[in-house]
Design brief:
The protein is mainly α and about 220 residues long. Helix content is about 60%, strand content about 0%. The chain folds into two domains: about 1-30 and about 145-215, no CATH class; about 30-130, no CATH class. The chain has nine helices and no strands.
């Protein structure tokens, strides 16, 4: 099925699979109440909530004559969203990922921080944005076999993994298999498909390496 690397990351197709898996997990976590609560706490910790609200309401970037308060808000938001030293944020998010989500992915705190910043920017700008994770354009590896169907089966598998292993409370394998069987019009082997899909999702997510220079200690 070419949904997970075999024998390590050996080609660009494998790199694409990892990117699709990371992206799918971020999408699944975006609606998680624990993540949303942590985002709200992050806004509060940086005094961003009133700034984001004021910018969203007043839309000073569309105003020909913004007030000093407007300019101050824009500068503060820009400085916060572009802040290079994120050590404290990453440490707090690492604690959340491990203690709140019960996950051990070292790359996930940086992805959540990027998502939080994008949510703040989108709220202030009145836009609908989301973090899109894509593989690097230049990778010094053979092309290999690319993920089929634009990574749709990878996204499905990671979503199953989230719903069965990460979500609180988790959903049962049986309910996921029943849902899958109804969607494809088949009853045989549906549970096996879900179980194998989750195994493939875990293999992909476990293969992602944190290359950030800000690694929580």
């Amino acid at each position: 099925m070419h949904s997970r690397p075999v024998g390590g990351i050996s080609n660009r197709g494998d790199v694409e699979r990892l990117a699709y898996a990371c992206d799918a997990l971020i999408v699944a976590l975006s609606d998680d109440a624990r993540v949303r609560e942590t985002y709200a706490s992050w806004l509060g910790a940086h005094d961003l909530e009133p700034i984001v609200a004021r910018i969203g309401q007043r839309r000073p970037y569309d105003c020909p004559d913004p007030t000093p308060q407007d300019l101050n808000d824009i500068l503060k938001l820009k400085a916060m969203l572009g802040e290079s030293d994120s050590t404290d944020d990453l440490r707090a998010l690492d604690d959340f990922v491990r203690g709140g989500l019960h996950l051990s992915y070292s790359w996930l705190p940086a992805m959540l921080l990027a998502q939080f910043r994008m949510w703040a920017y989108a709220t202030a700008g009145g836009e609908r944005l989301r973090l899109g994770i894509r593989p690097p354009a230049q990778v010094d590896l053979p092309v290999g076999k690319r993920p089929r169907d634009g990574g749709r089966d990878i996204a499905r598998n990671v979503t199953w993994y989230y719903r069965a292993r990460v979500k609180a409370p988790p959903e049962s394998m049986g309910s996921l298999a029943k849902e899958y069987a109804a969607s494809v019009g088949r009853n045989n082997q549906a549970l096996s498909v879900v179980q194998n899909g989750i195994k493939q999702a875990i293999a992909l997510l476990d293969a992602v390496v944190n290359t950030s220079s800000h690694v929580p200690k």
